[in-house]
Design goal:
The chain is of the alpha/beta class.
Length: 218
């Protein structure tokens, strides 16, 4: 039996918590007198919380002490977590569950590789945590994507060589991380943005299960 490790990013791939990140960052930015748009938010995809704050402060040319930054980071995270309280399985993006079911039925390894420090509670609230053989999140890694650390750790946790790993990602940084790790990259989003991926689908509803089977057989 052919076996592969399928590694999934979380935000924008399994669930759309990206909208909550945007709202939380936007609220903080407004408080600091910075106009933060959905276009600006694209720059934060796949980026750590600390780096995201630096990008936003640069937009407003704001210099801040480490103490201020810590306060704002906590404030943003508290705001974000307040949105997650009401989360349930309806937040799982369309087309994801059939793919997870198919992988489970065919005894493939399923791994989460996310920069989110809230990955486990999100998976639990979305009622998909039982699909995963391993979870690597922002609490486990020191280097943010495009560094491949999160995916390398995921592969190691399920004892698979990199070339037998397939990564689903919605960010340019994530695709670059997967590619530099020598893994197969599948972009979820717009082809003109994720053109470095080996394959791109606008969302999971466009992924045929034959495509998944072909990845297993490769």
């Amino acid at each position: 039996m052919n076996q592969k490790a399928f590694i999934f990013d979380l935000d924008g791939v399994i669930v759309d918590t990206a909208k909550y990140h945007f709202l939380a960052w936007q609220k903080l930015a407004q408080q600091l007198g910075i106009d933060f748009t959905p276009e600006h938010n694209e720059e934060l995809k796949g980026v750590s919380r600390v780096r995201s704050l630096e990008i936003i402060l640069a937009l407003g040319n704001i210099a801040a002490s480490q103490e201020d930054k810590e306060i704002w980071l906590k404030q943003k995270n508290d705001e974000y977590l307040s949105y997650l309280v009401t989360m349930d399985e309806s937040e799982v993006l369309p087309g994801v569950l059939p793919v997870l079911d198919y992988l489970k039925q065919h005894q493939q390894k399923i791994v989460l590789g996310s920069a989110s420090k809230n990955a486990r509670p999100i998976l639990e609230k979305a009622k998909v945590i039982d699909y995963f053989d391993a979870v690597v999140d922002g609490n486990d890694v020191t280097n943010a994507k495009p560094d491949p650390e999160v995916f390398l750790q995921g592969a190691k946790k399920v004892h698979f060589p990199n070339e037998k790993c397939i990564v689903f990602e919605d960010s340019v940084a994530g695709i670059q991380a997967a590619n530099s790790a020598g893994m197969t990259s599948v972009g979820i989003g717009e082809e003109n943005i994720l053109h470095e991926a080996h394959f791109v689908f606008s969302d999971f509803t466009f992924i045929d299960l034959n495509f998944i089977q072909n990845l297993i057989n490769k």
